[in-house]
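Weekly puzzle thread! Below is a chain. First person to post its structure in C-alpha cell form gets bragging rights.
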Amino acid sequence: MSGRRSSVNVTGYAGLFSNRPMAKIVRDMTQDQSLREHLIYLLDGGGAHLDFDAAVAGLPAALRGVRPSGLPHTPWELLEHMRLAQWDILEFIRKPKHVSPPWPAGYWPASQAPPDDPAWDKSVKAFRADLASIRRMVKNPKVNLHARIPHGTGQTVLREVLLVADHTAYHLGQLVLVRRLLGAWK
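Winning reply:
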C-alpha cells in the first residue's frame, strides 16, 4: 500500500473525526455537494419526474395550439408559462433591479397557439438556456444556496430552485395530460 493513496468516502466516517475542526468542514462540504447533486437530479427530471425534453419532443405543430375539451390550457400556453415563470425566477435571483411581470397576465402567452413554428422552437430553446443557467448556479460552490437573496423578502436560492423544479414538474404533468388527450403521447 505504500506510495498509493486510498480514496475514502468521508461521509460515512465523519463521526470518527468529530473532535477535529476539519471534520465539520468536510461533513458540510459533503452535505452541500450532495444537496447540489440532488437539486440537479431534480431539475433534470430525475426520479419520479419527467424531463422537459421528453415532454416537448415530437409534438406535432398542428396540435401546439389545441385545447382539449374540459382543460384550461394548450401545449403552447403551458410551454410559454413554464418558460416565463422560470425566466422570472432566474432573473429575480440574479438581478436586484428585476421587475416581475404582472400576475397572472405576464406569465401566460397572449394567444392560445404559437404564431409560427419558430416561436415554439424559440420558446423551447429559451427554456433550456434558462434551465442551464440555473443548473450552473446550483453547481457553483461559491453560490450559497441557504443565504437569503439580498433584494428578496426572505427567499433563498435553494427555495427558488425548488420552486422552479416543483412548478415545472406540475406543468409538465399537465402537458403530458394534454398530449394524451390529443393523441400525441406515447
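Puzzle host: Confirmed. Bonus trivia for everyone else. Helices lie at 21-43, 52-56, 75-94, 117-139, 157-181.
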